[in-house]
């Protein structure tokens, strides 16, 4: 490997420690970023040059051990600390933090969950700064939140949507309201078909026209993800639906995309979907979750509930520990300095070698 090998090893050390310092810098920069998951670096030895593979002993002589020279160091892994963090109080009733494992599922309004690939096409996030926009529950970036909406009560068309949730994973949106009263003179609340998005009218008394979404006030979310409010027009309580939580088999296998968002790549495994606590029970559309031509075992696709709960009025704090980051920064800085010495010393030795010709 000669002197150039020492130079290469030193340069690899510079690159590896610079990458590690970049991770530390990003962690420190996001010390106040809600939901931030800090990175953690591990180093890995680089490839080796083998001068001798070693030999076994014989009846007359002992064996020899392998002789190998390394070519430096590289980054082994950059993992994310996906553990639950402390909570920041916001005092806002629509802010939600997850206590336990799991992610909120967000996407666009038209994403149909008809396969495992489609389910994994949703975006994962731990930041639950929610609000209703244009009738849909969205996060701070305008992504639609997925969950289980309540069906309209067909037994009594003059009542508000019932408390029984659908078992289909769909974008959460407010129920529609009708401009025409039913035969009793009561307001008619129109549900939404979970598959097509079309309006669903109460049995035996369909409304003639639909006039936007129900106007709600005093909207709140409980620890089980249940969204409730009060109808401004009638004062009736309305249960909108339940927020879904998704979990993956390998937390460190999720791919960080941008901001507080992740995708469930191949390394993450399948997504299991449920609700905080056990507020929605049943086999949550397992008959329609397929993987290619094979029906996926419901236990590997959709669960009956989640062990996690929600804390409203809070957002998850950053996972950055400044004491740890500053300690790592000093360690990586010293490692970088040591590798610069290897490079400078090797350069001096090469210069001496060149000067031998004079």
From TrEMBL:
Domain Flagellar basal-body/hook protein C-terminal: 312-356
InterPro entries linked: Flag_bb_rod_N, Flagellar_basal_body_rod_CS, Flagellar_FlgE/F/G, Flg_bb/hook_C_dom, FlgE/F/G-like
Record's subcellular location: Bacterial flagellum basal body
GO CC terms in record: bacterial-type flagellum basal body; bacterial-type flagellum hook; cytosol
Domain Flagellar basal body rod protein N-terminal: 9-37
GO terms of biological process kind: bacterial-type flagellum-dependent swarming motility
Keyword terms of this UniProt record: Bacterial flagellum, Cell projection, Cilium, Flagellum
Pfam families from the UniProt entry: Flg_bb_rod, Flg_bbr_C
Keyword field contains Membrane: no
Family designation: Belongs to the flagella basal body rod proteins family.
NCBIfam families named in the record: FlgEFG_subfam
Job description of the protein: A flexible structure which links the flagellar filament to the drive apparatus in the basal body.
Name used for this protein in its record: Flagellar hook protein FlgE
Organism: Flavonifractor plautii (Fusobacterium plautii)
């Amino acid at each position: 490997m000669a002197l150039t090998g020492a130079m290469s090893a030193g340069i690899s050390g510079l690159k590896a420690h610079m990458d590690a310092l970049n991770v530390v810098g990003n962690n420190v920069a996001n010390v106040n970023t809600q939901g931030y998951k800090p990175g953690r670096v591990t180093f890995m030895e680089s490839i080796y040059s083998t001068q001798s593979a070693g030999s076994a002993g014989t009846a007359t002589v002992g064996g020899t051990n392998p002789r190998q020279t390394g070519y430096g160091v590289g980054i082994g892994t950059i993992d994310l600390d996906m553990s639950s963090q402390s909570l920041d109080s916001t005092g806002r009733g629509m802010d939600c933090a997850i206590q336990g494992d799991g992610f909120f599922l967000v996407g666009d309004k038209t994403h149909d969950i008809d396969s495992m690939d489609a389910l994994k096409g949703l975006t994962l996030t731990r930041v639950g700064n929610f609000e209703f926009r244009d009738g849909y529950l969205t996060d701070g970036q305008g992504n639609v939140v997925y969950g289980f909406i309540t069906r309209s009560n067909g037994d009594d068309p003059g009542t508000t949507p019932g408390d029984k949730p659908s078992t289909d994973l769909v974008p959460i949106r407010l129920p529609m309201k009708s401009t025409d009263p039913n035969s009793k003179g009561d307001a008619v609340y129109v549900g939404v078909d979970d598959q097509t998005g079309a309006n669903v009218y109460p049995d035996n008394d369909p409304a003639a026209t639909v006039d936007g979404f129900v106007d709600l006030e005093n909207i709140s979310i409980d620890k089980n993800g249940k969204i409730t409010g009060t109808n401004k027009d009638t004062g009736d309580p309305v249960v909108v639906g339940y927020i879904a939580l998704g979990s993956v088999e390998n937390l460190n296998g999720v791919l960080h995309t941008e901001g507080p968002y992740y995708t469930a790549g191949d390394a993450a495994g399948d997504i299991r979907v449920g609700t905080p606590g056990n507020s929605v029970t049943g086999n949550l559309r397992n008959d329609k979750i397929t993987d290619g031509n094979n029906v996926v075992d419901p236990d590997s696709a959709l669960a009956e509930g989640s062990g996690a709960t929600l804390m409203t009025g809070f957002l998850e704090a950053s996972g950055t520990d400044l004491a740890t980051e500053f300690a790592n920064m000093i360690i990586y800085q010293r490692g970088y300095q040591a590798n610069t010495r290897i490079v400078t010393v090797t350069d001096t030795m090469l210069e001496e070698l060149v000067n031998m010709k004079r």
